[in-house]
């Protein structure tokens, strides 16, 4: 009986080819304004982005303030701001750009998501 040779090869480190979320400078400025210095002793809040089932196309973006990240939330740090992405929304949001629009009649965050296949007429909901 001859001894068999066993070779072990380590898997190469995986690198993300796309970031989950990129934030435009205009959106970053608006987030900074919303999270301005809070009084001493207060808990720092994080903006958390997620997906919720609603609207005519099936899904809509959600944005909430949270005290701390949950176990599997993705932490997106860009410049001096931190945004959290809900773990359930990660696959839907990969490659998304977060922008901010400030017009005469409305001001809102806009998500330019390359994964969206269809959207409703008003633009509030989408389908992946």
From TrEMBL:
Gene Ontology cellular component list: mitochondrion
Protein name, UniProt field: Iron-sulfur assembly protein 1
PANTHER family: IRON-SULFUR CLUSTER ASSEMBLY 1 HOMOLOG, MITOCHONDRIAL, IRON-SULFUR CLUSTER ASSEMBLY PROTEIN
Pfam annotation, one family: Fe-S_biosyn
UniProt record, GO biological process: iron-sulfur cluster assembly
Function per UniProt: Involved in the assembly of mitochondrial and cytoplasmic iron-sulfur proteins. Probably involved in the binding of an intermediate of Fe/S cluster assembly.
Family (UniProt): Belongs to the HesB/IscA family.
Gene3D superfamilies named in the record: HesB-like domain
GO molecular function: 2 iron, 2 sulfur cluster binding
Domain of life: Eukaryota
Ranges for domain Core: 21-124
